[in-house]
Amino acid sequence: MTETGRPEALLPLALFMALMLGVSCFVRWQTRTGEGGFLRQYFVGNRDLGGFVLAMTTVATYSSVSSFVGGPGMAWSVGFGWIYMAVVQVTAVFLVLGIFGKRVALLARKFNAVTVVDILRRRFRSDALAAMAAFIIVLFFCATMTAQFVGGAKLFAAVTGYSYEAGLLLFGLAVVAYTTIGGFRAVAITDALCAIMMMIGIVLLFNYVLDAGDGYATIMNHIATNEPKMLEPFSGGDMPAGLYLTQWILVGICTIALPQSVVRGISYRDTKSLHRAMIIGTVVVGFMNIGVNFTGILAHGVLTGPAASYGGIDNIIPSTIATVMPPWLIGLAIVGPISASISTISSLLLVGSSAIVKDVYLHYRESHGETASDASLRRLSMVVTAALGAAVFLIALTPPSLIWLINMFAFGGLETAFFWTLLFGLFWRRANRLGAFLSMGGGTFIYCLAQGLGFKIMGLHQITIGISLSLVLFLVGSFLGKSEPDEVLREFFPE
Amino acid sequence: MTEKEKYRQVCREAAATGVALLLLIVFWLFAGFGLAGSSSTIFHLPLWAAASTVGVWIFAIALVWALTKWVFRDMDLEEESHD
Fold first, then answer.
1. Closest CA to A152 of A346, A300, A286
2. For chain A, is the Cβ count within 10 Å smaller at the N or the C terminus?
3. Any domain includes A430
């Protein structure tokens, strides 16, 4: 394969990846004493995150490469309705931390839990439920990680001129390596650096787009004259009311149940950090969502042809970067979107690995009366993390088609599985094992089935089917089945 | 705080976060669809486009600030107090 890219477009990303690896090795060295036990150190960073890092890692994990490429491309096409819809994501940090943050922090300390599945197993006294939860996590996480790899590598290829495979090798191997080496603490710190790079990338692109389009007023006048529907909330029918509704559910309210977000509730130091993180996180997530999509709209001042002439919606942002940025800055401009991709992958990789090591393997050993030494857990955790990363990396080398749809599919699946199970499980005494089992298993199965068959109700995304059915199933199970025994309820509901 | 007090406080905070969500949804509806008919502009934007994006963001920050100031309480997360 001939490479036609310029080395200077590669340099900033290569340096950034080296920095990530350096941070990870430093964290590894710093935590070599293994205070609090290896698993707690590796999977939740010994519960020691401060407010700023907690906010940044929650935002960075949540923001994916599609927030930086597909999303603003749609904003370019649809207009302000798209930002109006995207802004519902300001809930993504404060809802999960406000509702679950302290609840899981207290419970995790009480039971010495390091995963969300640990807490569910304890609440519903069910190994089968825990195994199902771990399976769902690994399955949907692999799908999401593949989508992130593919999205990042495609953007890399489009902007730098190097091949898709070269991009994947450069950042893909680095993210698997630094996650494996440094564990949760490294993931949290690198996530924070990624979030900062995302914001710098947005500000840079925003400024260059304004410049290239002869200033803000000129661009807005151009839009008002040529594309008036971009200034209407329904965008002349391109933004139906149903889309607003499903986005509130899919990327707003139900995100509180995403295991990769909830586990962050186990990882912070004290309640001051949590409160600070809720504010900082809301500021940052709003800044990113509005900033990046607004930039997409303003790109109208630069890309004035129809979307097809740039190779479709997903190519709008890569084309904009290549058009407006000076060549020496292009390398820096792609660090932002690639950061969005790797910061999601690192967190999912670690939670996926904890599901296999802690929730399945270690539990199996312990239930057979065996104990595992810290050294063997260390080896196993690293091997599983690396293997999971390598597997996803290989799938991404020959990407399945329609990869962009996978991200939202996985979001919906995880939300269907965990929303009611976590919400009712942690806040409702009557919630029982049968309800959780039906809700998680039945709801997720039907959601996947509806997705597979392309079945929709009133044209709405299948999350509406998944989340309503899992609610009904939970209630049916809870009223038909037996209550959990008093000793469990006393642990969870001390009154 | 005793364990029981902590549990009650955590439930209160979760419920208040839910109320904040409802307020945000109401504001979001008003700022976007509610103001869509207005013909006034601000920074070359229709009023609704500014209020429903930057406005919603600022409103959300204010809500979270209010939550952490007036509803959320600091507590020791370790299990040391007894009923």
1. A346
2. N
3. no
Please give the DSSP secondary-structure letter assigned to residue A295: H
As for the ipTM of the complex, it is 0.95
Question: Using an 8 Å Cβ cutoff, are A157 and A164 in contact?
Answer: yes
Count CA atoms closer than 13 A to A39's CA, side-chain side. 23
> Which domain, by its residues, includes B12?
3-71
DSSP code of residue B2: -
Cβ neighbours of B67 in A, within 8 Å? 94, 98, 278
What are the two backbone dihedrals, phi and then psi, of residue A268, each rounded to the nearest 5 degrees? -95, 165
Asked if residues A334 and A194 have their Cβ atoms less than 8 Å apart, the reply is no
B6 contacts A106? CB cut-off 8 A = yes
pLDDT digits (tens, 9 = 90+) for A200-233: 999 999 999 999 998 999 999 998 898 888 988 9
Q: What share of chain A is helix, strand, coil (3-state, %, to 5)?
A: 80, 0, 15
For residue A430, the SS3 value is coil
A80, closest residue in chain B (CA to CA): B49
The domain that contains A232 carries what CATH number? 1.20.1730.10
User: For residue A490, what pLDDT band results from cuts at 50, 70 and 90?
Assistant: very high
User: Which residue, among A274, A275, A423, would best test binding to B if mutated, counting the most B CBs under 10 Å from its CB?
Assistant: A275
